[in-house]
Design the sequence.
């Protein structure tokens, strides 16, 4: 499939699927470009495929860097509440011709990547509202 102009692809996606805001797709484009840059740096300039897991890692880091304590609020405003939403957006852009994919890529790659609340809200809670679970993960006392 021939790649499409990103702006045109986003407009088409928004007509077909209005769950996520246009801003979320432009943020995802930034994330993909950053993930590709990281891959190239790690491989000495070689073009390697960015996996769903790679994309989720960069998505998390970029969101926290850009929005800090407001990350969860911004993502919810954009219609995102779980890692599967990121996968749905990726596949919307693939179907629109804006992103490419390998034969190994599938929506399931984004399932259970991480819980948005755990990575975008818990780090900003006061210490009195956190606890460490049996796996060493920091959790929200209010969700127990």
Sequence:
């Amino acid at each position: 499939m021939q790649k499409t102009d990103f702006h045109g692809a986003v407009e088409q996606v928004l007509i077909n699927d209005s769950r996520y805001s246009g801003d979320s797709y432009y943020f995802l484009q930034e994330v993909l470009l950053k993930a590709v840059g990281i891959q190239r740096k790690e491989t000495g300039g070689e073009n390697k495929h960015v996996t769903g897991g790679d994309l989720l890692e960069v998505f998390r880091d970029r969101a926290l860097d850009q929005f800090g304590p407001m990350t969860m609020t911004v993502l919810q405003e954009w219609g995102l509440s779980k890692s599967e939403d990121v996968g749905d957006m990726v596949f919307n852009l693939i179907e629109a011709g804006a992103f490419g994919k390998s034969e190994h890529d599938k929506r399931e790659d984004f399932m259970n990547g991480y819980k948005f609340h755990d990575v975008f809200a818990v780090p900003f809670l006061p210490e009195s509202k956190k606890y460490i679970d049996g796996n060493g993960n920091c959790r929200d006392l209010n969700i127990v």
Summary: Helices lie at 6-16, 22-42, 52-67, 71-78, 83-95, 116-121. The mean pLDDT is 89. Residues 6-143 form one domain. The longest helix spans residues 22-42.
